[in-house]
Amino acid sequence: MTLEELQEIAQTELEKQLGFKHQINVCVAAGCLSCQSDVVKDAIQQEVVRRGLESTTRVKGVGCLGLCTAGPLLTVDDKTLYQGVTAADASDIVEALGGRSVQRLDCSIQMPFFSRQHKIVLENCGKIDPERIEEYIATGGYLALYKALTKITPPEVIDQISKSGLRGRGGAGFPTGLKWSMVSKSLNSTKYVICNADEGDPGAFMDRSVLESDPHRVIEGMALAAYAVGANHGFIYVRAEYPLAVKRLKIAISQAEKMGLLGYNIFNTTFSFDIKIRLGAGAFVCGEETALIASIEGRRGTPRPRPPFPAEFGLWGYPTLINNVETLANVAPIIAKGGEWFAGIGTEKSKGTKVFALAGRVKNTGLIEVPMGTLLRDIVFDIGGGIPDGGKFKAVQTGGPSGGCIPEQFLDMPVDYESLAKVGSIMGSGGMIIMDQTSCMVDVAKFFMEFCMSESCGKCVPCRVGTAQMHDILCKITDGNASQSDVAMLEDLCDLVRNTSLCGLGQTSPNPILSTMRYFKDEYMAHVVDKTCPSGTCKIHSPVGGVK
Amino acid sequence: MDPKPAVSSAPPKQPEDRRWRMVDRAMRLYGFQPHALIETLHAVQESFGYLDMDALKYVANGLKVPLSQVYGVATFYHFFSLKPAGEHTCVVCMGTACYIGGAADIIKGVSEKYAIAPGETTRDGKLSLVVARCIGSCGLAPAVVFDNEVDGKSTQKSVLEKLGRWTNS
User: Which of A33, A282, A361 sits opposite B133 (nearest CB)?
Assistant: First the structure.
């Protein structure tokens, strides 16, 4: 592959697209697929053929259009968005091409859900066919890789990433540039790059959407990372529960290999890089770096103490760089446009954008990407459209089982790494669950503790035993059998498990309890003292009036 | 998890069974190296639907990994099942969004009606109930998967209705 060949592919593809008068993009990411969007796509295609319009109208499957709640979604000529489409609407949609849109299916793209977003990671989502590399190349794909391999030295690539201020999107927010330079400094000739796509947080589907909608972006990011740190082999560790993402990744990798964008001597340089897929098998702890490495090595996914960090001693003992899907998806645009461009977006310490999976009791559920520092209120009420059915906002949960619940008084807080940490939550990988008055906060804490308890790998005692003990006490509270001393014990246990567990899973497992205790202590007290559940979620059987 | 996976009751698999070819292929792809263990177990589960003792022994032999380690890995990961699934499988997502949306109610309803706990199969082998951590369809919460087909915005009633069609009850 040479630059000329790459440009020719892009040119041919663009000309081909211009040859069509109309373009109908049907979302075939997992959310819409489960509402039979593939059937809709086939119906529209048939309708187009029936009317003999196939030479002027192109129907294609694209990645996530974002507003999952209104699926199946499709766009016509990138201007009109239709929601809740069924196969029966095909005729009307084709009929309306070029004229007035079909009113009953119309969904405004001017609404804040779309207009308030700023897309970098998701810029191609819903625009390109994820199963065709030509479309990715036509958007300028793999040009950043070409630029890096032929014009920039590896230290300069790392320098750009450092300048951009990009931080790990997997949860902890470690500066990406620093991580890369640690791996690059190691003198070992064998190094690995791993893409962590083991998105285990319940309530998060960002990585899945990126992989399903724009897999080449992640591959290009990995190749750039490998070039920067001096690695020649890569692994993508992806959940087996995401079959569609796995399928599209496999297609993308083989396409890139065929075109010489992966493999030996990429762009006729001395740089060689290959990527293999490894399937996870449903263990949340494998999101932890050392556990993930153990799993790729074919062992039980148990973490080990760090240091040594994977940057020095990783996969099979070699220096290994592990980055999250979203982090890697940010790399190609940074190299293409420069670190300063990226650093200009976001807040002082949190740069760029963040993808969130908005779910729970909110009108517009789906996938959004906003600049760091966007106010929580704007996300929930503007983009999310507020609480449905006249409900009242109670809390928003970020960071999954390692995060916390943020109450109403912090709605005007900017969403960035520091602000979230200040109120006792974390950025996490980007799940954002909104809760209304029907959710009991003790029950929510119990839900997460049950999760941590059964996902604990069992290696270290504080996590294995502590999470079970904390879960027991929470059950006692929600059953109305707890006393004040149980609550005190729970607080002690939180402290103990947090400070003595081996890995992040255990260390952060008390967070949901700590944050709900901090902001919703009255709910705990209502369960313990009055033996009632204010939201009516917990079924407490006790004499009227309660027992003190 | 069942400490003793089904061994004696099922007839031993024939080595010429075509399904083993998939497993052999997976092992060959990785040069029969021990680190291919998880990939190979995925291949077994894909071919046979679950992992039984014969399969674990076969994989242990093929990759030269102690059987104890194969068993350890097979039981560590939730994705692997050591028991055969029922004719139909109903997976209820228990991710946060689905939980907030009432997934616990759905599980309770199914458990009570069919007298099975999550992870179990009805006695007639018709239906398995599985609880998933998060299937990533949070926009459609609560999500339930009926034999690989995801169904969104479910309620206890809609799920029981669908299951009724499978079990004629």
Answer: A282
Domain hosting B77: range is: 1-84
Q: Residue ranges of the alpha helices (H) in A152-288?
A: 154-164, 176-185, 206-213, 215-229, 243-258
Q: How many domains does chain B have?
A: 2
> Do B7 and B80 lie in a common domain?
yes
**What is the complex's ipTM, to 2 decimals?**
0.90
Number of domains making up chain A: 4
pLDDT along chain A (548 residues), means of 10: 94 93 92 88 95 92 90 90 94 91 91 93 94 96 96 97 95 92 94 94 88 96 97 96 93 96 96 96 93 96 94 96 97 96 95 94 93 96 94 94 94 95 90 92 95 95 97 96 96 97 95 96 95 89 45
- In the sheet where A106-107 sits, what is the strand order? A57-62, A22-27, A74-76, A80-82, A106-107
Q: Which of A31, A200, A439 sits opposite B140 (nearest CB)?
A: A31
Cβ distance A360 to B100 less than 8 Å, yes or no, reads yes
- Among A205, A367, A538, the residue to mutate for chain B (most B Cβ within 10 A): A205
Task: Specify the pairing of strand A192-197 against strand A233-238.
Answer: parallel
- C-alpha distances (whole Å) from A358 to each of A82, A170, A388, A436, A467 are 20, 17, 14, 14, 27
For A284, the token pair is 């949340």
